[in-house]
Design goal:
Blueprint lengths: L1 H10 L1 H13 L8 H14 L3 E5 L3 E7 L6 E7 L26 H17 L7 E7 L8 H6 L2 H4 L5 E12 L3 E3 L2 E4 L1 E10 L3 E2 L9 H17 L8 E9 L6 E2 L2 E10 L2 H21 L3 E7 L5 E3 L1 H15 L4 E3 L10 H4 L4 E9 L18 H21 L1
Parallel strand pairs: 3-4, 3-5, 5-16, 6-15
Antiparallel strand pairs: 1-2, 2-4, 6-16, 7-14, 8-12, 8-13, 9-11, 10-12
Helix pairs in contact: 1-11, 2-4, 3-4, 4-11, 7-8, 9-11
C-alpha cells in the first residue's frame, strides 16, 4: 500500500498545484469563505465523496467510510486567509486587495483534497471512517474549530483521533517535523485603558498623566513573567500597540495599550490573568488614575498525544525516510486546532514548505512564497498516516 499511496500522490501533483494556485488567487477572510467552500465542494463532487456543507457557517465535512466498522479519524484543513496585502509578485498572486493566504491554508486545502482522492481510491482497504474537515475561521477568535466541534455532523461522528498538518517555511519541502506533548502556546489578547486627567504638557503638576502611568505599567508587567512564571513553563507577555492621542504640548486623558499573553500551562494562564489585572490597576491607582482591563481568552495550549505522535513519527519515517523527519522545538504561536486536542487524542505536525539554502519569508508575511513540492508529498503522507493510525487504534 505504501508504494500505491506514493504513486497516487505523485500522479495528482499537477492537479493539486493548479487547485492550490486557484485558492491562493481567490482568498477569503474568516467566516466569509463562501466561494472557497464552493470550490472545495466541486472538488469533492468530482471525486464522489459524500459531504456536509455549511458546517460551522462555511465549513465542509466529507466522510470516507471504509469497508468495515472501526475507529474514526478526523483530518483538518483551514479555509480562511489573512488581512494582509500580498507582496510576492507571483503570477497567481491574490486578486483580492489586502487579503492573502499568508499562513498556507491554500496549501492545506489542496493537500487534503489530494488525501481525499487517495483515501477514496483505497476505501475498500480502510477499517474505519475518516472525516475530512475543511474548517472556517482559524485566524479569527473565537476560532472555527469550536463551530465544527459544536456541529451535529461532528457530534454524530466524533473522531477517536484528530490529525492536523501545517506548513513551515523554515523547514525545506520534503521534510516533516513532530513534537510529542506540549507544542504550541495558548494565546490571549490584553487590552488596557489607562485613565488620567489630561491638559497642557507645560503644567504637569495640575494633571494626572496617563502616559507616565502607562509607561510604568508596561515595564512593571514584564515582572509578571520574570518573577512569577514557573521556570519550566514558557511564557510571553508582549505589547505591540500603545496609543496616547495627545501632542507635543498636550497630555491626553487616557492611553490605550494592547498586547498578547502566551503560555503553555492552563493553571498558570489563569493566575497570570489576575496578576496582570492587579498590577496594572494598582500602579494606575497609586499614581492617581485608574486602569480598565480586558483580557480576551484565545486558543488554549496545543499538546500532542505522546504515544500516537511517536507512532505517527515512525509512519512518516517509513513514508519519506528517517532523514526527512525532524524533532520540532516548542512554538509560542497559536492554532485553534487546540480545541480538538482538549477532548480528542491528537497529532498536529509540520510539513516543510521552504526552499533549500534560501531565506524563506515566514508565516503571516506578505512575501511568503511556498515551495509547491510540499504538495507532492503531503497529500500522500496524510493518507498514509490516517490509514496507519486507524490500524493502531483497532
Amino acid at each position: 500500500m505504501l508504494n500505491t499511496i506514493r504513486n497516487l500522490s505523485k500522479s495528482q501533483f499537477n492537479q493539486m498545484v493548479e487547485l492550490r494556485r486557484y485558492l491562493h488567487q481567490h482568498p477569503e477572510l474568516s467566516f466569509k469563505e463562501v466561494n472557497t467552500a464552493k470550490r472545495i465542494a466541486q472538488e469533492l463532487d468530482k471525486i464522489g465523496i459524500p459531504y456536509h456543507s455549511g458546517v460551522g457557517e462555511t465549513g465542509i465535512v466529507a466522510i470516507v467510510n471504509g469497508d468495515s466498522s472501526g475507529p474514526t479519524i478526523g483530518i483538518r484543513a483551514e479555509l480562511d486567509a489573512l488581512p494582509i496585502q500580498e507582496q510576492t509578485g507571483l503570477d497567481y498572486s491574490s486578486a483580492n486587495p489586502n487579503v492573502m493566504h499568508a499562513c498556507g491554508h491554500d496549501v492545506h486545502m489542496a493537500n487534503l483534497i489530494g488525501t481525499a482522492k487517495i483515501l477514496w481510491e483505497l476505501r475498500d482497504e480502510i477499517k474505519g471512517k475518516i472525516l475530512l474537515i475543511f474548517q472556517p475561521g482559524e485566524e479569527l477568535l473565537p476560532g472555527g474549530a469550536l463551530s465544527i466541534i459544536n456541529s451535529q455532523v461532528f457530534k454524530q461522528n466524533v473522531p477517536d483521533l484528530m490529525l492536523g498538518a501545517h506548513i513551515l517555511p523554515e523547514l525545506e519541502a520534503g521534510r516533516v517535523g513532530f513534537r510529542s506533548g506540549p507544542y504550541m502556546a495558548s494565546g490571549d489578547e490584553v487590552y488596557l485603558t489607562v485613565k488620567g486627567k489630561g491638559g497642557h504638557a507645560a503644567m504637569p503638576h495640575t494633571l494626572v498623566d496617563p502616559v507616565v502611568m502607562a509607561s510604568h505599567i508596561v515595564l512593571a508587567l514584564q515582572q509578571v513573567v520574570s518573577r512569577n512564571a514557573p521556570i519550566d513553563v514558557p511564557t510571553v507577555l508582549s505589547f505591540g500597540k500603545i496609543i496616547g492621542n495627545g501632542a507635543t504640548n498636550v497630555i491626553p486623558d487616557l492611553v490605550e495599550i494592547e498586547g498578547t499573553f502566551r503560555t503553555m500551562n492552563e493553571s498558570w494562564r489563569a493566575k497570570a490573568h489576575n496578576l496582570i489585572a492587579q498590577k496594572a490597576k494598582g500602579i494606575a491607582q497609586s499614581m492617581g488614575g485608574d486602569c480598565l482591563i480586558e483580557i480576551k481568552e484565545g486558543y488554549p495550549t496545543l499538546s500532542n498525544h505522546p504515544q500516537l505522535t511517536a507512532f505517527a513519527n515512525s509512519l512518516a519515517k517509513e513514508y519519506i525516510g528517517p532523514e526527512g523527519v525532524v524533532d520540532l522545538p516548542i512554538r509560542m504561536t497559536t492554532d485553534d486546532f487546540a480545541y480538538y486536542v482538549q477532548s480528542i487524542p491528537s497529532v498536529y505536525f509540520r510539513v516543510g514548505a521552504g526552499f533549500e539554502n534560501a531565506e524563506n519569508a515566514g508565516l503571516h508575511n506578505g512575501k511568503l512564497v511556498v515551495n509547491e513540492h510540499v504538495i507532492e508529498q503531503a497529500g500522500g503522507l496524510l493518507a498514509w498516516l490516517a490509514i496507519g493510525l486507524i490500524g493502531k487504534l483497532q
